[in-house]
Amino acid sequence: xxxxxxxxxxxxxxxxxxxxxxxxxxxxxxxxxxxxxxxxxxxxxxxxxxxxxxxxxxxxxxxxxxxxxxxxxxxxxxxxxxxxxxxxxxxxxxxxxxxxxxxxxxxxxxxxxxxxxxxxxxxxxxxxxxxxxxxxxxxxxxxxxxxxxxxxxxxxxxxxxxxxxxxxxxxxxxxxxxxxxx
Length: 182
Fold this sequence. Notes:
- By secondary structure, the protein is an all-alpha fold.
- The protein has one domain: Alpha Horseshoe (Serine Threonine Protein Phosphatase 5, Tetratricopeptide repeat).
- Helices cover 70% and strands 0% of the residues.
- The chain has nine helices and no strands.
- It has helices spanning 27-36, 40-55, 60-74, 78-91, 96-108, 112-125, 130-142, 146-159, 164-181.
- Helix 1 packs antiparallel against helix 2 (40-55) and helix 4 (78-91) packs antiparallel against helix 5 (96-108).
- The longest helix has 18 residues, at 164-181.
């Protein structure tokens, strides 16, 4: 697949970075299938498998921290989860999903600049991270950067065309932009 995100992120290789979730050989085929899925019924099982791979890590300590952070998020302990993901990122800076989870937390806490910074780190490591691309669109909307939001949502749909929530967000954004041009 060709890189989708040349407009959104600079490509950076981190020498010595740990191989993690986003380097899994199973992802290429799953992303190809995801792009060909005609509807959400076909796409959702592929999406779930991709998320499972992104969360996996071959280091048990890092996997444990990921699970702990997810449990904290599920229990609405956002500050605790933030601390857990910060610890995980410090220990495993090449773990894309740790950056993505922390980006989500920053978004929920209203720190959009920090969220965007972590999204950019996620996308450097996993350029096809449709969740991060969608999140970038939401961060841009929160900062009234509507054209950047459109670019981010469009990039997410290049990776995952059947992503209904992103399609709806993009459609609403396009309508808003048309109305504001009048």
